[in-house]
Amino acid sequence: MVSFYMDICISLIEGIVITMNTLSYKVAFAIKQANPEGTSSIEVMQYSLSILFNTACIIISSLVIGWLTGQWKGTILTLFSIALLRFVSGGVHLKSAKACNIASILTCTIIPHLSSFLDNYILLINGVSLVIMAISAPKPDKNAQLPIKWFPFMKVIAMLLVLSNFFIGSSVIGLAFFVQSLTVIYWKRRVLL
User: Which segments of the protein form a coiled coil according to its record (predicted)?
Assistant: First the structure.
């Protein structure tokens, strides 16, 4: 039964990704027609718009699923926690928008449900996340072109965020930080979806 619902969700997400890519092309084309001289190429605008539209898809889908499953607040907290830590720590990117959307939506909607089972392990989870951030962060997007001189500052901020949960004590935040910390590990010969 779970497999049936997963298949439906994946099919819906595939359709949404295709729609988002089509929409981003149409919007980029319309912008280019409206101002051909003062805009970037259609491809550049489509790429940027597809990132924005797919991010909106992840947020909206996660919030709807969180609301339907009674974990709306936990889903908001998960989205915020992962986004905040990812902003300073970076992390691996999946190879396609579809894979990213599926992984992100599943992560943000499952964490609030799992967190209650991990209350007794929150200190361990925080500790592991802190060690991973100390060793591996940051792992910025290669397209971000951030100066290397910012990396130590980004590492410290990422570690402070994880440290803050030792005082907050939230299993949702702890699990969200742990999942995000796994994305900064440098795996040898890593192949992701």
Answer: none
Helix 72-89 × helix 171-182 angle, to 10°: 40
Closest among 93, 20, 30 to 59, alpha carbons compared: 20
Vertex 65: Cα angle to 56 and 11 (nearest 5): 75
Sign of CA dihedral 56, 59, 61, 63: negative
pLDDT digits (tens, 9 = 90+) for 87-114: 999 998 888 888 888 899 999 999 999 9
- Residue 184: exposure state from Cβ atoms within 10 A (0-12, 13-18, ≥19): buried
Q: Given pLDDT bands bounded at 50, 70 and 90, which one contains residue 72?
A: very high
